[in-house]
Amino acid sequence: MLNHSIFVSMKTRRIKCSRVQQEASVFFQKTVQNAYSLFHICNPTPNHIFSSLSKNALIYDFTSANVIVRSMFEAYINMYFLLLDKISDEERNFRLDRWEKHALTERKIIVEALGSKHSILETDAEEINKFETKIYESKYFNKLSENEQTSIRKSKKWTKLNALEKADLAGIDRSQAEYLYKILSNYTHSESYAIMQLHSIEEPLEAKELCNLSMIFGEMFLSLSLAGFASVNQDVLELAYQNEQVVELIKFWNQLKSKKLNELSQQRI
Length: 269
What we know:
The chain is mostly helical. Helices cover 73% and strands 0% of the residues. It has one domain. Helix 3 packs across helix 8.
């Protein structure tokens, strides 16, 4: 799956396409890069560099593996909400406009925090104003209730939905989403559970076993992301379906994402 995903990503870079296709391409590229890093964490190269480690030592950094899967999980549900959800073009453009305005606003805050006077700040401020006008004058916005309009104007977020609600929209069973969000958040924020797991490791093979969950769900989100990209781009669809194993994996994960967690755990994956 990873090898073919890299192939698809490389073949579809810098090609003129629609707004939705371009954003899908970037989401997919990010997920492929995450999967590449995840693969190397879970299949480490024997040490030949650091003298303080024994020669050929293997480091299974399962904590970072889980942080990467959290990123892949959120990339997929954001991709679905923005690009794959069954909504009108009017609403999709409204969501994308809020997404792009938020990105520019975040960059402005980050750059200003560094005390920078970069010319991009002026450009970003102009673009933010353009997006605000576009959002507030859109037909979709004007169909919303007064309370919803006020909420959007006041909000610093690009959507009111949280991660679990976006996972619901993406068709991921709530028991799976809650489990993933809980366990991956512990690793992302270095909470007590994650530190306890590190304490428990006495030999490399135990750390290797703790990479298994990351590999399973990493493959799931890579497969779903490729399927999502293919659903909005005919060229990607044709490239993806050149590989029968990839097609079977996409079907497999599309079916399993909607299963209860206890059903998933019974599968041979």
